[in-house]
Hints:
Blueprint: H1 19-69, H2 75-78
Amino acid sequence: PTPFAGSGKPQEPLNLASREVRDENARSTRQDLLDAEKDVKEAEKVLDALKQVRNTKKQVFNEAKDLACADRPGGKILCLRNPFTSGF
């Protein structure tokens, strides 16, 4: 082997720790990854619950808006209103 590995820079010898140390490091980082994935799954469950609440409130708003627009010019579809006083 040449001291150059095609990049034009001399290669430095690898200073590897013992196999046991590297294995323990891999185990530790894998456990960190699994813990992070568990946290993500819990956060996604909370997010799904919040999205359901949002969708329910959005549906209630749309029904209220349709009722408010029912007697306006254009009805529920067009709902012509004064944007400065209607508030929605």
